């Protein structure tokens, strides 16, 4: 009876279905884009800072103080500071061969926020040059490593 009219209605229905389908896809895409919880504008990308209090640069210590007192103690102390939250501080002492002779870690507590102190004593009866390196890590995973602080033990 009206084959031309039936074809036109079928074509309009197909176009309408395509339009609705495409509109739905666009709406879903906009929804997921706007609901993203990854707001990089507020991400912490700044590494902590490290302040070394001890030992003094190029300090010399004795492997034997005499009178049975043994070697002189070196206090290794540094503070890590972060604008948000510091997680860990680490110290590593190496000898002139690069062998690790001491490692220590300090972790933040629920009461610590932006500062963390690490302190450890070191002594040796082996004369030589030693380096201590401090590493600080904040809650976002940003890491800072100090320059090596060199000190020497002499007989």
Largest sheet: 6 strands, mixed
Tell me the strand percentage band.
Answer: 35-45%
Radius of gyration: 32 Å
Overall residue-averaged pLDDT value:
85
Estimated structural class: alpha+beta
Calculate the terminal CA-CA distance, rounded to whole Å.
115 Å
Shape: rod-shaped
Description:
The protein is an alpha+beta fold and 155 residues long. It is 21% helix and 41% strand. It contains 1 helix and 9 strands. It has one helix spanning 3-34; strands spanning 49-54, 59-62, 74-81, 86-95, 100-107, 115-122, 128-138, 143-145, 149-154. The strands form 2 sheets. Strands 2, 4, 5, 7, 8 and 9 form a 6-stranded mixed sheet that branches. Strand 4 (86-95) and strand 5 (100-107) form a beta hairpin. It starts with a helix and ends with a strand.
Brief write-up:
Helix content is 21%, strand content 41%. It has 155 residues and is of the alpha+beta class. Strands 2, 4, 5, 7, 8 and 9 form a 6-stranded mixed β-sheet that branches.
Properties at a glance:
155 residues; alpha+beta; six-stranded mixed β-sheet; 9 strands; 41% strand
Write the topology of this structure:
Layout: H1 3-34, E1 49-54, E2 59-62, E3 74-81, E4 86-95, E5 100-107, E6 115-122, E7 128-138, E8 143-145, E9 149-154
Parallel strand pairs: 2-9
Antiparallel strand pairs: 1-3, 3-6, 4-5, 4-7, 7-8, 7-9
